[in-house]
Each structure stands twice: as C-alpha cells, then as structure tokens.
Amino acid sequence: MIFVELYRISQIFSVLMQNAVNRRVIPKKNRRLRALSFLNPFSFINRHYTRGEAIRITLEKLGPIYVKFGQLLSTRSDMIPDDIIKELEKLQDRVPPFDGDLAVQLVESAFQKKIHVLYLDFDKKPLASASIAQVHAATLKTGESVIVKILRPRILKTIRHDMAVLKLCATLIERLWKHGKRLRAVSLVKEFEKTTKDELDLMREAANASQLRRNFSNSQQMYVPKVYWENTCETVMTMERIYGVQISDIAALKQSSVNLKKLSEYGVEIFFTQVFRDAFFHADMHPGNLFIDVSDPENPRYLGVDFGIMGTLSPKDQQYLAQNILAFLSRDYRRVAQLHIDSGWVSCDTRVDEFESAIRTVCEPIFEKPLSHISFGHLLLKLFQTAERFHMTVQPQLMLLQKTLFYIESLGRKLYPDLDIWETAKPLMTRWMREQRSPRTLLKKLWRDFPENMDKLIQLPGLLFDLLNKDNDECE
After folding, report:
1. Same structural domain for residues 78 and 110?
2. What is the pTM for the complete model shown?
3. What value does the mean pLDDT take over residues 220-227?
4. 265 and 219 in one domain?
5. 283 and 215 in a common domain
6. Model confidence at 436: pLDDT above 50
7. Mean pLDDT, residues 157-185 taken together
8. Are both 249 and 360 inside the same structural domain?
9. Are 51 and 25 in contact (CB under 8 A)?
10. Pairing relation of β-strands 301-304 and 222-223?
11. Quick one: 11 and 102 in the same domain?
12. Is the pLDDT of residue 26 over 70?
C-alpha cells in the first residue's frame, strides 16, 4: 500500500517538474524554495505557460481524480487567484470508456442477475464516459427507454490511493509554506473526499434526483427524470432517458424558435426556488448537465441530469442570505455587516464599523452600474473575499451556491444579454420573506417543534430544582 502511494508521489513530482509548476507558483520572495528550481532536470526547457496553465496541464496529466480536484478548486474563488480559476474552469472530466462487455459484467455482478433479465435491451456502446462512471442506453422489460450509470471498475481502490497522496501533499503545503494555512489545503482535500464519496454512492445520487423530482413535480419550468429503484444500487443507477437540446447549443435553440428571454428567466427562477423554497439545490448546473425540452418553444422546459453534487442550506442561512441580498440592494452596508456577525459567519468580536467600511469600499463601484448589469454571483464572491479578511471561514455550501448562481447568470446572459437577474428574482425573494413571517408559517413551525418543546417543558421543573440546590450548596 505505502509503496503504491510513494510511487504515485514520485509521478506527481515528475509531472510538476516537467511543467515547471514550482517556478511559476512559488512566490519570488521565497528564495529558498525557488532555489530548488535549479535542481529540476527539466528546467532547461522553456515552457511558455502562465502559472494557471501550468497547474491545469499538470492536473490533466495526473489523471481524472486530479482533474476533479481541480474542478473543486475552481469553485473556491474565495481562496484561489482569478488567473488560476479561469484555467481550472477549462478542465473537462472526460476519460476513455471501459469495455462494454465489462459494463455488462459489472451490472450482472451488482444485481446477481443476467443482463437480459434486468433489461429488454442493453447497448454496450457508452453514451458518455467520465472519471467516476460511464453511461449506457437501455430499454426496460416494460418498454421504457432508460440510461444506466455504472461506476468504473476498481475506482474505489484508485481513489483511496489518490486521496492518501492528496492528504499528504496538503499537510506538507500547510506546514512548509508560509501561506499554506491561509489556503486551508487540508480542509479542501477533506471537502473533496466527502464530495467524491457522495458521487461514488449511486443510491445517494438516485435519492437526490428523486427528491428534486418531487420538489418540481408540478413545475412547467423544470423536469427531473424518474429513477427506477428496482434496477438501482450503490454501483448502478437506472434512470429515465430524456431527450433535449443542450443549453449551450444556442444555434439549435434559435432554430427551434425557443423563447430565449423566457428560458433565461426560468433558469433564474428555478435556482432561487431551489435555494429559498426548498433549501436543496442542484450544485453542478454547468451547461453539460442542462438540456432543454423544445417541444413547446414558447414555454421551454429545463431537463436536469447528474445529481451527484447537491447543496443544502439551513433555515438560518436561508434567512441571512435573503436579508443580506436585500440589504445590499438598498446599500445598507451596516445591516450587511451586522447580519454577518449575527449569523456567526464572522467572529462576534469584529468591529462593525470596520467591516461596514470594507464592504462599502468593495460594493460602491459595483452598484454604480445599472442593476440589470450587476452579477450577483460576482457580488457574493467579492463579499466572501472581503469577509475573509475578517477571518470568515466560508462554508462549502455557500461557495457551491455562489458558483451555481454564477453559472446561471452566465448562461442566462448568453441566452438573453438583457436579462435582469434582480427583476426576475426579486418577486420570488419578496414572496418568500413575506411567507416566512406569515401566521400560517409560524403555526407550522410551532407545530413542527411542538414535541421537542414539550420535552423541554417537562424537563424544566427538574432543571430549576437542580439549579436551586446548586445555589444552596454554594451558599453553605
């Protein structure tokens, strides 16, 4: 085991040297570490890479798990420089497919049944192949067209080795580099490990899809495919096959006479509905995971796929997020600062006036633009970067939300350049805030918490008695 990991470390070191990552990433001020560059046997090769390109190319050469780690890093704009982020966003999770006969064996092994018992027809040629799994088309015995997602063989073993190496590298970065702790490398690797483990459990992904389908069961804006549970397990997932135009194919959407203004507005409404109504959102809404049903061009519908990464928000975070956005738009920076402290996002000993001043410095130039030109994803990012100076640890869920909002805004404005994000989102947020304060919602919360509150009420006399006895003992 240890020899496999040592061999992998030597491979990583070799690729780092070949791409001169050490010279491009290590700050010039750090003379001791930069002096090691002269020990690099590849240093005579003059590669004209920027530091972002060097890191991206290195991750691509190291393999799919490192590509996925780079994709995670691309969501952490709060700690990674913009020039590196832009390069990491180019990473594509594509790997050569494994053999179709092996796919059949994996499915049969998972269910202990022959493939012809499970499916009427199974296409051995994959529709898509990625680092974690690959997808095949099939037909159920009942005639429905489905896709079958199958985990790659030996993927668990591969990930276990690579995770051990990543953890070691992260620990060394934090210990040996002055700025390593600020990057929170160990924390990032732990976050990546959790996300990857979630993606390795296809039962979890199926449950995510099922929940999202239920949330949008009556929606005319979004459709989530059905999961076929009898043909789903931890390593194989069977889901309804959907047909649509990829959202990035704007030429095809125009050819189908799709109402692009409505489509862009629907994307914003779907996102804010997930965040504020459901507190459960698809956190990987990049163009590759979104298709459009163009059967009714005037009322197009989003078709979602790939539910491995989902975000959740606590009721408290929902409230503070909504209040923050509304306070921002009214330029009430003191309110924004106070909300960050009240929510626990920033330490309670932070000076409100200093934090308020820092937020104003960042936001005033942004708000000089018309609201229709403001990127709320960019605004949230600037806020997180400012708050980090006041020792705010940005929760991964909030960074997922910021990245997803950025995707939605970017897609929306490509579809319809005059899209006004705020004008579209404001009614949803205002209605949600009003509902949170309504008597009906308050009664629902009281009823939901009634058993727990009754238990506390029953315990109250005993707690008071113990407290009085404690005071009497201290007096004696």
Report:
1. no
2. 0.77
3. 96
4. no
5. no
6. yes
7. 76
8. yes
9. yes
10. parallel
11. no
12. no
